[in-house]
Amino acid sequence: MTIEGISIWLAIFGYSAAFIAFLYGLIFEKSKFNDYAYILTSAGLFFHTSALILRWYLTGHFPVMFEYENSMSGTWFVIFIYIMMRLWFPQSKPFGVGILPIVILVLGNSMHAVTEHQPLEPPFRSNWLVVHVFFAWFSFAAYTIAFSTGILYLLKSSGRKGILERLPGLKILDELSIRLILFGFFTEAVMIASGAIWAYGLWGRYWGWDPVETWSLISWLTYGVVLHLRITLGWKGKRAAWLSIISLSTIMFLLVGIKYLSGIHTGVF
Amino acid sequence: MNTLWRVIISRKLATYLLTVMIVAMILSTFVPSEFTMTQEEVFNMKQNRPAMYWVSENLYTPGLVKSAPFIILSAFLFLSTLACTFNRMAGWIRHRRVEFEKEHAFSFASSVRTEKSAEELRVSIKNLLAGERWEYSETTGESGGFVITAEKGGQSGFWGSIAFHLGLLLCFLAAPVTYYWGFNAQLRMMDGETVSFKESIVDKHPASLGALPDFDLTLTDLKGEYYKGLYKMDFSGRLKASNGLHQKEGAFSVNNPFEFTGYTFEMGEFGFATKVVLSKKGRTILDQYLMQRGEGSYFKLESEEIALFTIFFPDFHREGAKVGSKTREVKNPHILATISKDDKDIAKGLVKLGESGAVGDYQLRFDSVTNWGAFAVAKEPALPILWLSFCLGVPGLLVRFLSNQRRLEFEIASKGYSEIIIRGYSRYYPAFLEREVGKMADSLTKGAL
């Protein structure tokens, strides 16, 4: 196994151990495990960053090609934004309990698709790549953290103690969720718009209804419906929490399930 | 008429219909289609399972979005969005304020008692609001006291939302413009070849476009570059277009199309073209360039009632019984030819470049190899509409995201002491609202201003 391979597996191990620690703290109401879990997450991020930098150095480009690199970078973004959020908002530490399983699932799923180190293929040689991919990862991170706030909202409103006591109040969790979804909606709009412009220069058409494009639109419209239900029709509290949980499934299918539907996009995605 | 108008601008109905649209699209992606099946599987389905083929053609996503129910649903949502957007704009022009009471907004109230007189409080509140850039106005309260109403974030958030929805409407409009007036087709050319654009394009949509321009295209310097001979690095070349009046020559590559008289040529495929001569007992049956595809190319020869299947190996390599290509560069070119009759393979042969070899009763001569490229040809009149929609929609969404539309009402009554009731309304952020109202109340109690 290469150093990159060892690093990424150590990252997965770190995140898995962190998730177990969060769960233990939650179930047995041991708030100290909150801190252990955060340390393990940070350790996982260290190994994840090492793997990412190594891959970048060996391939000569930021890891963006195909399932393995995309998953590696996207999940890195999620954890990084979670760590940054925790610095700005310390009460968000327990959010890891919802974020980590998603990261482990996506990263673990991509391990079967590890590819050799190769240069950036011609379709990826575009300035629009940077805009499209970075905003995609921003939206993935925002939606994943919103998913986590939804889960924590439901757990906290059930009256459980332990690490949940350290969480911000329900109103703040609700507010965080909508802020994150709004941010994710905006960044996903930029992703779709830049993708359409890039597609025209690459394939001669800005929209072809291939499965990846269709599922991007499905996920964006789903979050659009969530925003309308919350803002226009006044859904809040537990209903809103369930919305932020269920709507992530569209993003997860886009990341993990789309390869079974093929298409011009999956040849490069 | 009123009922119809209420139905059209009903956001609840629009939300539910959008949900129906989403579910339909989700289901359509699981319908077996050209995206998920090989050409052979599609052909077999068409022959053996016509009902399933009908489902595949009409209910997979590109088919679904052209179906009458989907178009009707889209048209209604377009109308609903349009009506709602203009209704909101008309409301804003009339009232110049957000009707929080009618909207679903978060609200929070707090009351404060102070020794200060009503007049002192009035000045304090106005100073506080002016300092934090609130827009405020004053009216008389029901109990004779006064009410100061302040708003913030309303204008930017409102107009951000309007801009976003207008951008969305333009996107809706771009679709039929593309469908009815857009053009796309495929063009395959070999390196060094000159073709007539009008006569060489295939897979035209729309098929009945009317008069196509007639100009000649010449392809030169077509090449593929590989890293370590295996990994795709770049595909590029030069195109020269001429219609007698205008002439243009330029380089192209993947992501860098060539453009002439509004038509763009995007490089989509690259391959090798092999010049072969197939003969039998001295009689030439086939003498042409064959455009090879990686997995093999199939050519039907009707005159002989046979089919010729060829695989081109640019860098032929044999390991025991296995054959293949070590790299993608033309270093040791060979063709593996298989002749079949009535779906049965009858002969096979391997021929090196510049040589001749037997393939059963046939003789195959492999003369030369060059490159071919396939271009996606497009003319897209909806592009300016799309650009406008993105320029409106994306910044609109950003402004909406950054705004925090809210209102505060200060109702002051004198009862020997002064009592202020502060009511806050916020569209999105309940916790923020509570903190803001609390901060206002603290400032007034402490006499901060």
Descriptive terms for the model:
heterodimer, A: 269 residues, 74% helix, B: 449 residues, alpha+beta, 36% helix
How would you sum up this structure, described in words?
The complex is a heterodimer of chains A (269) and B (449). By secondary structure, chain A is an all-alpha fold. Helices cover 74% and strands 0% of the residues of chain A. The mean pLDDT of chain A is 89. Chain B contains 11 helices and 22 strands. Chain B is of the alpha+beta class and 449 residues long. In chain B, helix 2 runs antiparallel to helix 6 and helix 6 runs antiparallel to helix 8. In chain B, the strands form 5 sheets. In chain B, strands 4, 6, 10, 11, 12, 19 and 20 form a 7-stranded antiparallel β-sheet that branches. Chain B has a 5-stranded antiparallel β-sheet with strand order 1-22-21-3-2, with helices on one face. Chain B has a 4-stranded antiparallel β-sheet with strand order 5-7-8-9. Chains A and B meet through helix 6 and helix 7 of A and helix 2, strand 8, strand 11, strand 20 and helix 10 of B.
Structural class of chain A: mainly alpha
Kindly report the average pLDDT value of chain B.
87
Largest interface: A-B, 55 and 59 residues
Overall pLDDT of chain A: 89
| Rg calculated over all Cα atoms of chain B | 35 Å
Q: Considering DSSP H and I runs of 4 or more, what fraction of the residues of chain B is helical?
A: 25-40%
What is the percent of helical residues of chain A? Answer: over 70%
The profile of the biggest β sheet of chain B is: 7 strands, antiparallel
Q: What is the string of helix and strand elements of chain A? A: HHHHHHHHH
The N- and C-terminal alpha carbons of chain B lie at a distance of 53 Å
